[in-house]
C-alpha cells in the first residue's frame, strides 16, 4: 500500500516553488483541529522556530493518532507531511518507518529556509520517542 506521502510527493514534484508553499499551507489547513487545552509545555516540540505542538492518542487497536498544530502556516504544513508518514500506524510500524527517507523527495532543506526546517528532526524524534515508549 502506497503511503499518503507518496501521493503528496507526486503532486509536489510537478509544482513550482510558490505552488509548493501553497500545497504545504493547504496540508497544514487539513490537519485535524487540536484543542487549545492540549497546547501545553508538555506537547510543545523543542527547537522549532515556530511553536509546534504534537499530542499522541492511541486507538483501540493500539495504533497511534497524532493531533498537531503550529502557529506558522508553512510549519503546520511540515508537521502535516511528517504525520502523513506515520499517522494511524502501530508504534512498531512507526519505529520501522524511515521518516527522513520518506520526506527526502520533498527536498525540504533546499526549498525552505533552515529556520523553517530546523525543527523537523525534533518533530520526528518526538514521534519516535512516543512510539518507542508505547511499543514496549
Descriptive account of the structure:
Helix 2 crosses helix 3. The chain is 53% helix and 10% strand. It has a two-stranded antiparallel sheet with strand order 1-2. A hairpin with a 5-residue loop joins strand 1 and strand 2. It has eight helices and two strands. The protein has one domain: Sufe protein. Chain: A (Alpha-Beta Complex), CATH 3.90.1010. With 136 residues, the protein is mainly α.
Rg measurement, Å: 14 Å
Number of helices: 8
- State the shape: globular
Number of strands: 2
The assigned structural class equals mainly alpha
What proportion of the residues form beta strands (DSSP E)? 5-15%
**CATH topology value:** Sufe protein. Chain: A
* Strand arrangement, major sheet: 1-2
Q: What's the CATH architecture?
A: Alpha-Beta Complex
User: The biggest beta sheet, please?
Assistant: 2 strands, antiparallel
Name the poorly predicted regions.
none
The average pLDDT value, as a whole number, equals 91
- What is the count of distinct domains? 1
Amino acid at each position: 500500500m502506497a503511503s499518503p506521502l507518496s501521493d503528496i510527493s507526486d503532486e509536489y514534484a510537478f509544482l513550482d516553488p510558490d505552488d509548493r508553499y501553497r500545497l504545504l499551507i493547504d496540508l497544514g489547513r487539513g490537519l485535524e483541529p487540536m484543542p487549545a487545552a492540549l497546547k501545553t509545555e508538555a506537547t510543545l516540540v523543542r527547537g522549532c522556530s515556530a511553536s509546534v505542538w504534537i499530542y499522541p492518542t492511541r486507538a483501540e487497536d493500539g495504533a497511534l493518532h497524532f493531533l498537531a498544530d503550529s502557529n506558522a502556516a508553512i510549519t503546520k504544513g511540515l508537521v502535516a507531511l511528517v504525520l502523513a508518514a506515520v499517522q494511524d500506524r502501530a508504534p512498531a510500524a512507526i519505529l520501522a518507518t524511515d521518516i527522513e527517507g520518506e520526506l527526502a523527495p520533498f527536498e525540504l532543506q533546499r526549498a525552505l529556509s533552515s529556520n523553517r526546517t530546523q525543527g523537523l528532526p525534533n518533530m520526528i524524534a518526538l514521534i519516535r520517542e512516543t512510539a518507542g515508549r508505547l511499543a514496549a
